[in-house]
Amino acid sequence: MLDRVDLDRTVGKETYQRQLPKLQQRLYDLEVEIIASKIPIAIIFEGWAGTSKIGTIGALSRRLDPRGLRIHPITPPTTVDSEYPWLKRFWQRIPAYGEIGIFDRSWYREVINGRAQKNLSQADYIQQCEDIVSFERMLNDDGVILLKFLLHISKKEQQKRFEEILANRVTAIQVTPDDLWQHKHYDRFWHVTEDLLARTTTPNAPWTIIPANDKSYAQLTVLEQIIAKIEQRVQPHEGATMPLAARPAPPAPPAPASTPPAYDAASVLRSLDLSKRLDEQDYNHKLAKLQAKLYLLGLAAYKQKRPVVLVFEGWDAAGKGGTIKRITEPMDPRAYVVHAIAKPDGEDKQHHYLYRFWRRLPQRGQIAIFDRSWYGRVLVERIEGFARTDEWQRAYAEINEFERQLVDFGTIICKFWMHVSPGEQLRRFEERKAVRYKAWKLTDEDWRNRERWHEYEDAVEDMVRFTSTPRAPWHVVASEDKLYGRIRTIRTIVRQLEDELGKVKL
Length: 506
Known about the structure:
Blueprint lengths: L12 H25 L3 E7 L5 H9 L7 E5 L14 H4 L8 E5 L3 H9 L5 H20 L3 E8 L2 H12 L10 H8 L1 H15 L6 E5 L3 H17 L35 H4 L9 H24 L4 E7 L5 H9 L7 E5 L5 H4 L5 H4 L8 E5 L8 H4 L5 H21 L2 E8 L2 H13 L1 H4 L4 H7 L2 H15 L6 E5 L3 H20 L5
Parallel strand pairs: 1-3, 1-4, 2-3, 4-5, 6-8, 6-9, 7-8, 9-10
Helix pairs in contact: 1-9, 2-9, 4-5, 4-8, 5-16, 7-8, 11-21, 12-21
């Protein structure tokens, strides 16, 4: 692929000076359309050291409104970065709706360097390439225009530029030891880059290789490519200076990854035995023992540097809050954080729905408890129409991929659906309404959700069937009796942690 690139392409000085301002003005006009249409754009620059990526980014960004622009210089991962799954720091930098994000190097940097420097095994390299393809597919499906440029120069040209930079005391600092190492092993980087391009070029996120021996030619070509791609997507509005192409219709909704045989729409929930009870004395005895084990397992997770994610979904008033309280009571308060997830607002609302959960992941040795979670996409957002059909249908695969990456990192995931009958929920609602210190928990939305009980049942069934995986299974807990539900849940957590971390003795 790289050997077919014509590196001798050039552009005259007069042509460059004439065309550059026009392209920059056109891009500024399009930025107005991007903001109005709330289209996020991610522009990635990779390539050899010395290809003047910064000069190209400068030509691209100089005339843009900085309020709609974010430039991300990507450096090697820090010690803090290593405490989380490797893509977390890039999820935190994805552009908001209506924003242009420019990446000076990107998620490709550590993959290329790691493989070329032989710090990354072939198996890990292949897996990270697959992680990237999945990541970019999620961004593209969410409407992100993803533009990937590889600036390419010859080894001879790289040597020439390094000599020019190093000859000047002011600019010499720009050439790093890593840059010199890359030049020395140019052929090795060439082969890794060739392989990576083949693995990560997809129909909706293709690579564009830019001949960059002539910096002026590279800058004009990048600007032309960006403008052409954006013009295919933005919608014209009054005041646009040039005609714009209409945005294509969204793709047809995809079917779930696998289609199960016909089944009773609420078989998992309706087959659950809700009659189980636990007397208070037995409950107190079992709770004390389980809480003691939880404390020791929390210490084990910290020592073994294993992150833990506990996910709680369930009907309103099903006992999620009370169960979470009993889980956290014995724990060191520094070891956990509870995330009460409501509808997204502010910055979270301006990004992909998984953005706010990547931001809230626990670091190694910590416990994150989610009271509601990313499963809102296939529950409330599905039922209430906050997500289009194609959006919530593809979310099953997106969530499975998200959780796979967490598990591959070493995260222990426990997921619970707290289940009660409609009658028991009504009784608890009435009880809350009658008790002053509980009344605040009851909202108009809680009453409204009861009217769509059967729709939510169907959504829960689909959620469990499509997202219960061997390493992140769902546990549907009978919570008609709160005491029984709490013990069942905490016992399940203890058993799963012991399976991963080792048995603990009291």
